[in-house]
């Protein structure tokens, strides 16, 4: 082989991988990475036009979706639990007073209003509707006449009162409520859990009645719940591979979304860590661990439309952008917040 041909081959060997790399990058769904909280991320939430990242220490960092290059607003409210709500507000349970809920601004430096929980109640979790206009507080009663009870209390963005809409006696009922959610108009509340088998229910908040409930012996527990933006569909994930879509009003099972089974390390099991519905109501996204892969489905057809390898580490939570075109992923053990293009539906 001549020296000229040998040099040509070497050049081709070097250039082709570079071209392939640029081609792969051009096809990648990855958009950008944000510097999240150093203590790592617990939750990622979109409310209005803002992206909220909640750290494991309940500090909240707020970006504007329309310009993620702007430095985030940081709030450090010294809270046990903290979540964003509508109208650029934050609600939190202070670490110094377990029986009080406080509403503040995005910097958490101005108290706007507050509400006291009943005597003996300890706040455990706060979750909001997708639009942030309604929220649910879960409380355990540690003292008083209601000791041993677990309750869910509903509030709206005006935060003038807390209405308890679900309760159970934990000393008698050993089943666990793993997740709960509320519709954007505050009409329906749904809960998902497990014990001897998986179960779920939907409650009519206004009439204070259980619309329907179901039990599934084939699953051990349901761990994730979320309504579609219009409140017509309820999505419930069991622990491992299946997400069930129900008619929220009737309880009819409409469709089951199934993840592929994959090989995991001996000390880990495959599980669904988070699910979310796009604001336009067309796409369902879910993360599977330990793979750190986010799956996307067309809700209308049930067909998988794509997936992204979100992280080599544990994905803590995911959130769509307001226009449903992008997805933010948080990491449980590092400050990385990644932004991805969402696979598009076929016309």
Description:
By secondary structure, the protein is mainly β. It has one domain (about 35-340): Methylamine Dehydrogenase, Chain H, CATH 2.130.10.10. The protein is about 5% helix and about 50% strand. It is built from 1 helix and 28 strands. The strands form 7 sheets. Strands 1-28-27-26 form a 4-stranded antiparallel beta sheet, with no helix packed on it. A 4-stranded antiparallel beta sheet has the order 2-3-4-5, with no helix packed on it. A hairpin with a 5-residue loop joins strand 22 (about 270-275) and strand 23 (about 285-290). The longest helix has 25 residues, at about 5-25. It is globular, with a radius of gyration of 22 Å. The N and C termini lie far apart (about 55 Å).
